[in-house]
Structure formats: C-alpha cells, structure tokens
Automatic annotation (TrEMBL):
Keyword Repressor: no
Keyword Nucleotide-binding part of the UniProt annotation: yes
Family annotation (InterPro entries): ATP-dep_AA_Ligase (IPR052032), ATP-grasp (IPR011761), PylC_N (IPR048764)
Annotated GO MF terms: ATP binding; ligase activity; metal ion binding
Protein name: ATP-grasp domain-containing protein
Keywords in alphabetical order: ATP-binding, Ligase, Nucleotide-binding
Domain ATP-grasp, residue spans: 130-312
Amino acid sequence: METREVRRILVTAIGSFAAPAVIRELKKEGCYVVGTDVNPAELLSESTEVQAFYQLPRCDAREEYLQKLGAVIQREQIDGILPLTDAELDVLGADTEQLGGALLLAPSGELLQRARHKKQSKEAAEAVFRRAGNERFVTIPTFRMPHRTEEEREQWLLRHMPLILKPDNGRSSEGVFRIGNREALTRALLELRMLGRAEGYLAQPFISGRVVCVDTIRDSAGHTLALAREEYIRTPRGAGLSVQVFRDSELEAICGALAAELGVIGCVNFEFIKDAGGKYHFLECNPRFSGGIGFSERAGLPAVRLHLGAWRGESIPEDITERITPGWQVKKYIEVVTKE
C-alpha cells in the first residue's frame, strides 16, 4: 500500500463504547478529530473531547445522512473516516465514492460483505481452521430457518433445542434469541412473524461458555498482531464490562490467519465462545473497533495507532508484544459536564 497522510479524522457514533479510547489515542497521535452522532452534544461525554462535533441524522435515512456527512467532510477537510458502528459502516462501505475523497479507514465493498456476512465469515474460518489442523478451533453448525409451514418450522426447531436464533447480517447482538424451552421458541417465532423477518434468520446450537474477543491488526504487508480478552460481565448488547486480558499464541496466530483470509487491513475483532474444555467456537468477525478496544489499549496494545498506521501504509513494529501486560480490567463510568 502506498504511504498516505491521514491526519484530519472524522469519528462516527462518538456515544459508542469504543469512542473514548479511539478519540484519546487519535489525539495522542496528533490528529485533528471531528466527532459525529445522532444525539446532540450535551448528551455525549466525548463531545467535550473532539475538536469539532456535528449531529447527523440516523444513517438509515441514507440520502440525508450522506448529504450532511459530505458537507462535514468538505467543511472540516477530512481525509479519514472511522465508523464505530456496524450500521454506519454498512452505509459508508457500500459506496466509498460518496465520501468526498476521504479514506474509509475500514473494509468496504466485497471485503466488508464477506466479513459481515455470517455464512461467508464462517466459511473463511472453516478454511483457516482446516489448514491449521488444530482441534481447539471449530465453527458452530449453522442452519437457515427452514422454509416450511409455521408448525413444521416450530417442530424442526424444537428438535434442535437449546439453540440460538440470529439474523444473518446481525449487529451488536441485536435481534438474537436464546431458546431453551417451547415457550421461548413460541414467543420468538411470533415476534419474527410479526416483523416479517423469519426467512432471514439462522439457527445454531447453544454453546455454553464465555465470550472471547480478539482485537486483531493486519498491515498491508500481511504482518499481524492480536490480543484476546475473556468477558465475564457483558451488557445485553454484548459489550464487555469486566474482562481478563490474556495471551494465547495459538489463538493469536489463528486470528492473524483469519484476518489474512478475509483480506482486511487495520484493526478488526473476532469473537469466539470458549467452552469448559478450552475449545474455541467461532462466532463472528466485527470489521471495526470492538466496544472493548480500550481494554487492549490499557493492556499495552496501541491498537488505534497501529490501525491508523496500517491504513497509512506503515508496518507493525516488531517490538510491540514486549509492551503488553495481561490482567483483569473493568470499565468505569464517570460524570462529565457537557453543558452549563
């Protein structure tokens, strides 16, 4: 990749979990940081940390969102855009020509679709695990909701309980149903029928264990670096609050190979369920900063700096791993005055 200067950066969704660490580390790198969000500045602590803030419409109002975002890009002379949510990444990654010449610092086009699509990312993981020949890493059997009558569909799902129902293009644990009994299944199917979404859902057997998130960085030369954390307390939307950051050379190598298989550049996040026997069941790829990126930063992995460097065409320094300190971490909330 040709070396490119990226200094004036727009960060979307600054009310998200990843925003404090991302903004802090970008400013340490000497970047001019512009923040956007659907909420007004007074509702966002990070609005006090950016050099400029703009409230934008929801990205599902696509045309209005892109028009107003384009005006901000032009006014602030933005040369790099960092989307922090899947919803905005899906919109921005679909057509980067609408970004006014600013570089999308995230996957786009077919690369984004392959990483975000559950079936395609699962196929990529299967290929990597097969080449590695390591039985610690497996994918979860996944079935598309059968195209049958409602009664036949319910009977099919009952035979496979306990299970998880999830949308094929899900975001941040949205629309996920955990089914342990017939009553829960009936409620889930009723809700999906009312929303007209049953045909877009996948079914997976429920795997007991804790979620392990692996922040993984890949530069344009193919060098990779990864750091894992096991999450003990999570929000209902899947953001870690209490975690243990740890090193596992086999897991780190697998995630590096996954990043290469998907062809991503910069920092992405892979999620697994680690069962009682220590086996890792692949869940998904989040082709953006994870909500818990601050945990990796605190442990000594400069993920934001390395992500920016990867998109600038720089290589990952060889001595980074020497600075990483595993351990237990928790997220802490504080009060911030945003307006008087």
